Amino acid sequence: MKSTRSTLVFALFSSVLLFACGASESVSCQKQYWDGLVGVCVPAGWNEVSTEQLRERGIPQEVVVVFQSEQLVSGNIPTVLVTKEILTRDFDASTYSESNVVSVASLPAFEQVDKQELKIDGKKVHLHTFIAQPVTEEPKKRFYQLSSVSRGVGYTITAVLPVSTDKAVERQALTMLRSLTFEQSIKKEEK
Question: What is the tally of structural domains in the chain?
Fold first, then answer.
């Protein structure tokens, strides 16, 4: 099950928004992030935040990687992040994914918007969309999130968007989330 600490890591990034430019129907993978354990398609205009920068900012070790847009949106840096937690018992991908859906329901002002089934590396997981306000002094945000497991570790990838967003932003965020993989060959394009 998701720990309180993982939920707190998630809340650290709640003030960050995801933004993409352009209205293209497809989102291409400019580069493929792969650290030997986890992979993600990174669209044009996104950069990886160095591990050193994350640690300088006090971001805990549970954060595997953070990507930030080159563009600011209303003074915020758009961000997608991957977190991990060592599991103390065996979970299959679907059970772990569902436990994540349940764990975020405790966030302030939580509202489930959508929940879809999809497959990551052939394993059934849930992509859930919700609105929450983890930091009470900040406005509500729309979150897109999915979780899966690999080799005894639970991974969660999260994108944060404004409550009202355009389709181009949504496509870019969903491309990154749907591209999560634990196999070295990852999707190059998502429509």
Answer: 1
